[in-house]
Write a structure and sequence with these properties.
By secondary structure, the chain is mainly alpha-helical. The protein has two domains: 49 residues; 38 residues. The longest helix has 36 residues. Pfam families: HTH_Tnp_1 (PF01527). This is Transposase. InterPro entries: Homeodomain-like_sf, RD_transcriptional_regulator, Transposase_8, WH-like_DNA-bd_sf. One of its GO terms (biological process) is DNA transposition.
Length: 105
């Protein structure tokens, strides 16, 4: 597995995008700076989406909204699962039987 590092600051990413748009190649920037050429290309693509130059993906605000919504739904599902587990345990005690274990959890 590759090593993880802190994300590059937004200003640094913007500068890389500007340099690519000014004519530098992602490969030359990757040799001079630390990010990979693929990372730089991805930043350019995302900047193009955010500015309306591309329509082949989500803009940054759309991605953030989706991320927030999925985290909220995930939190809710964990709460519901916990409630159901407690209810199942309560019913098992009340009926003096233990339900068979589910292979899906």
């Amino acid at each position: 597995m590759g090593k993880t590092r802190k994300p590059y600051p937004p200003e640094f990413r913007r500068q890389m995008v500007e340099l690519v748009r000014a004519g530098r190649t992602p490969e030359s920037l990757a040799r001079e700076f630390e990010p990979t050429a693929e990372s730089i290309r991805n930043w350019v693509k995302q900047a193009d989406r955010d500015e309306g130059r591309r329509e082949d993906g989500l803009t940054s605000p759309e991605r953030e909204e989706l991320r927030r919504r999925l985290r909220r739904e995930n939190r809710q599902l964990k709460i519901e699962r916990e409630i159901l587990a407690k209810a199942a345990a309560w019913f098992a005690r009340e009926t003096d039987s233990v339900p068979p274990k589910s292979s899906s959890s």
